[in-house]
Amino acid sequence: MLVERHADRVVATLNRPEVRNAIDQATIDALHALCAELEAEPRILILTGAGGVFASGADIAQLRERRAADALAGINANCFVRIHELPMPVIAAIDGYALGGGAELAYAADLRIGTPALKMGNPETGLGIIAAAGASWRLREIVGEARAAELLLTGRLVGADEALAIGLVTAVHEASGLMDAAHALADRIAANDRAATIAMKRALAAPRAAHPQVDLELQAELFESPEKERRMTAFLEKRSRR
């Protein structure tokens, strides 16, 4: 995995071209190490893949050798949960295939954008297993229960136009402009108050029963923030000059 660090964001590129960026144990270990870094120093994370592929899935050669104890350990599932729970937003920039575990990694992001070459799906049942690293609950939250059931039970792949139509991605860009678009999203997020962004992500992740109390508690913290005072004062001063 290639990691490019900036003051307000990190770009992580899956880079195993010989197996179309299949996710193996070394990839998971690298993602855990990156999560530890971003938990200690919160920044936006942009996930992408090299060579016109996001990730073709979990590494089948390794997956074939795993047994019940490995499944119960949640090797990929726990890593993807950790990615989704990072303090700052995660953006998946998807070109080409995002299949199986690769799709589930993309589902763990807060925002997903793609290219016309995008192909996403979970063909796991055709390999004698299920999509157990987040698809069974995250895909339902993203595209709705009926659509998720159809995709997961058939293993059908979704192209860029359909992915956009069902909300699986929020935008489609030419491959040459994909990373520019990802950075533009990151720029919009980074221009906002970091504490407010972290709070907004926490509110979005809270279960329905926790609302509105969780929103009020997070807002109470922000109402005491000097940055809230500074930003609102700047807004009022700018408006008064118009």
UniProtKB/TrEMBL annotation:
PANTHER family in the cross-refs: ENOYL-COA HYDRATASE, MITOCHONDRIAL, ENOYL-COA HYDRATASE-RELATED
Pfam families given in the database record: ECH_1 (PF00378)
Origin species: Agromyces larvae
InterPro entries named among the record's database cross-references: ClpP/crotonase-like_dom_sf (IPR029045), Enoyl-CoA_hydra/iso (IPR001753)
UniProt name for this protein: Enoyl-CoA hydratase/isomerase family protein
